[in-house]
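Dear colleague,

Thank you for sharing your sequence with our group. We've completed the structure prediction you requested, and as agreed, I am returning the results in plain text so they can be pasted directly into your records. Please verify that the sequence below matches your submission; if there's any discrepancy, let me know and we will rerun it promptly.
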Amino acid sequence: MPEFPSPRSTLELLKPVTWFAPMWAFACGVVSSGVAVQDRVLFVIGGVLLAGPLVCGTSQAVNDWFDRHVDAINEPGRPIPSGRIPGRWGLYIGLIWTALSLLVALLLGVWVLVATAVALLLAWFYSMPPIRLKQNGWWGNAAVGISYEGIAWFTGAAAMLSALPGWPILALAGLYSLGAHGIMTLNDFKAVDGDRAMGIASLPVQLGVERAARLACAVMALPQVVVIGLLLAWDRPYHAAAIVLLLAWQAVLMVRLMERPRERAPWYNATGTSLYVLGMLVAAFAVRDVVPHPAVQVAG
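Please find the predicted structure tokens below.
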């Protein structure tokens, strides 16, 4: 066995495929700030690295470390159980990436540092005994939704503004975090049997597949309805209309999902979820000049 992990195995442990969601949410935060990207290029680059490879990568390394015994049975080819990440290097990588994340966050500003610290705590609490938020679908899905959508959105806006974002940005970040809880519920459908056998109380295990699917659809749709109401209140009718159309399209797909929820959950996560995140970007453009931000005038 190797004494040190190879770069390729380390990258596999950090799971680049999972980085897209928080990086997208960070981009929505950047857009919602109203600050020109060219005025804060280094902050944008640093924030993208922070949201994806660093914080999200940390969460993946930590999760694989604390799941290594189960993975040795179910997925022995993964980097840690296969020995390609030898000894305690899975834990060391999680700790190193945590420190790097905090360092980069410090360079991007105090509010970014606060948000990053919260996200990292959730990343460790999600997998680490005895807390292991992932053991219960209500708490685990909330932690992921808050980290991947809300905190990443907040981080993008805070990095650009060098200040606490205004309440409209906070409202949108919070609402889309809530909706992401439903996305994570659908993501749990692929492991219902394994979760039940391992005693993991995912929502499909707790509620049954059909009830969990109905709940997931409602949790995804209702925050978007509130977003539409807010955009109309902020005199953004065209943006609101765009999200109405995206939500209507999602509703059509949800009807098909409910016909065979367990089989079609991956399909919906590839289609309906894409419409959901497009709505996030529409809302980000809508809110960018709803409330003037003093920090915009001095950005850069």
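Summary note from our side: The radius of gyration is 20 Å.

Kind regards,
the structure core
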